[in-house]
Amino acid sequence: MKQTLGILAHVDAGKTTLSERILYHTNTIRTPGRVDDGSAHMDHSAIERERGITVFSDAARLSVGEHTITIIDTPGHSDFSAEAERAISAMDYALLVVSAIDGVQSHTETVWRLLRLYNVPTFIFINKTDAATANADEAFRDICERLSSDAVDFSGDFSEALAEKSEVLLDEFIETGEISVSDEVRKLVCEGKVFPTFRGSALRDENIDTLISSVLSLMTEKKNKNVFSAICYKVRREGSSRFVYLKINSGEIKVKDRIKTPLGEMKIDEIRFPSGEKLVSASSAGAGEVCAVLGLDGISAGDVLGDGENTKTFETVPVFLSRVIFENKYSSREILEKLKILEDEENTLSVKYAESLDEITISVMGKISLQVIEYEFFRRFGIKISFDTPHVIYRETVAEEVIGYGHFEPLRHYAEVHIKIAPKERGHGISFKSECSGDVLSLTAQRLIQTHIFEKAHKGVLVGGELSDVEYSLVMGAIHEKHTEGGDLREATYRAIRQGLMCAKNILLEPYFAFSARSDVPLSGKIMADIRKMGGTFSPPEIEGEIAVICGRAPARFLGEYAESLISESGGRASLALRFDGYEPCSDQDEIVKEIGYEPERDLENTPDSVFCAKGAGFTVKWYDAERYMNCL
Question: Which residue of 21, 103, 128, 603 has the fewest CB atoms within a 10 Å radius of its CB?
Fold first, then answer.
């Protein structure tokens, strides 16, 4: 049997220590490493060893009898949720670690939700049962209440609990008085109807052998189709080599094989199996295995290769933006080029350069991820960079329908485009349709305009935020048989969209977080008052004994900081679990627009003005006069 097993947890639950013990007990490593002294086999990067936290997902292969298992250790901090989600996309099974001291925490719930989203069968390990303040029974109750009532305690007699999950098992229990691990139990685990839960201490090496043997006995080997299919879940560079990490879902690949990718057919130059910081060369890799390959230039995390579904869009979305600061002895282009290398590995960074402002920005999950980028940038390139205070990533949309006009006619060029921009329901992205007859503008030209609409994220005119939740309709267009050149329709399309936005009633959108707050009942009143001040909403609190649970949503710009302050100010008696929950209109739009101070007409890369030709020379017409100059009215 070949499977991948991901290990996940809230930070400090003991996840990496457990990974080390599993590797040790399966004779994969000679001595289990420690997080606190920087010797962990799985946390091998310099920053992980220095800070004692997992930043990158790392894999290691282990063999137990006839089984080959690849374990994937993942980050436990919320700032690295995107890294954890990509790793989850490569998992056959997951092992979620919960501390017997702290129970279910905010990031535990985040990870659990992602595991359920990806339908990953999950085992649970209640760790640190040796600690003086541990309460494993309370932790198990916490799991049942906050994660799933289908968690079953396998540390004792689980027969009665399993009998409730299946008629087949109920019959077995009635007939024999007990239930043994069988195909029916494995089926329930695989389908996510039962979550086996174990107890022990990774640090004290208690019940680790039992955990390993139990997990292996409860796994089901998936049927392997002969057709090759895989997903890329991360990209990493080692020197000049660019390794694409694949989880193979079916079939097999060999060195020199040519495989289907979203970028066309590509050849596999090398195959290696990851084992901590080492990459071991191999001639082939098959279903259930994780491998790092060379030769797949341009392939990114989320891309599906071979016979599989389309590229995966990950749910974890960065909502904060920060400007890059560096010494003026370096050019922006030089810094941008190097940041793009990091973006290739962490594609949520979304590195952008505004030439008119000579400014580089990146998207991040939080402050700790900025510190990691600073560290990695200096380690790799020997250049110190820093960042200004992160602010949320705003988007923009329109309140009502508007038509934009774009004309591009320098000497010996010609294109004119009229585009209607209409609002769509929130969260429905961008769409396109044509209302223009093929007799007026050829279908080839219309398809080219559609391509130009989708080839970039168009910027709004309030703060320069990405335009979202709109439908573009091609109303009219014109080209010239002799003078239209490549790129003319692009220029006219871009200018039409921008001109329409300058005339539109625009709405500023900000990211929202859905939250679940847990606190002592006396604290709940303060939390609700705080959420109201943020402009958030919530349902009436649910009282669970001495704990109040409040669920709702509020702007991310307030909740991001509030989550940290709530824990410290309450002395740990309150916590806040957050997840991205879409975009909504800003209640204080005018103040934010004024504060950011974006000047759309100075953004020369996104001009709303048109270019016309007269007496053999081109001349610019400002956006507010452009409509009356158009040829197709």
Answer: 603
